[in-house]
Amino acid sequence: MNNEAVVRRFIDGMQQPLSAVPAHLRATMTDDAVWENTGFPPSVGIEDIVSKHEMSGEVFGDYNMNIDLLHIAEGTDGVVFTERVDVGSTQAGEVILRVPVVGVFELRDGKISRWTDYFDPRGLLEGLSQLPDVEAYFTGKK
User: Fold this and answer.
1) Which of 19, 6, 20 is nearest to 109 (CA)?
2) Where do the Limonene-1,2-epoxide hydrolase domain residues begin and end (predicted)?
3) Residue-wise pLDDT tens digits, 101-133
4) Is 10 within a domain?
């Protein structure tokens, strides 16, 4: 499977209730993976990445992420670039988050080892401001 196909499979697997996402992350990312939303501290290691996703559930609930993949391209070096619109919705279908994103993925041995998203963080920050300890979201330590 080429890297573009791996990233497509990864994106497809992210489109399920948030409570099911940790297992998907563990299955598709390396143990030492790095996930970065530019402007925020990176999540380093699969458990830190899973923790950040679980903490977003504390803000937004067990939402579904629907991803409109607009463009995808794999470079000659195997790096995959995506342009997408991520739309988070409650189980009842209410849109709670809409973020245009450019994502960059590096892979190793068929798994994602680095995932960087570039986006305007306004929508995310509005939701995170509801957390009693927003610093924990960024540090991974409650």
Assistant:
1) 6
2) 3-127
3) 999 999 999 999 999 999 877 666 665 665 556
4) yes
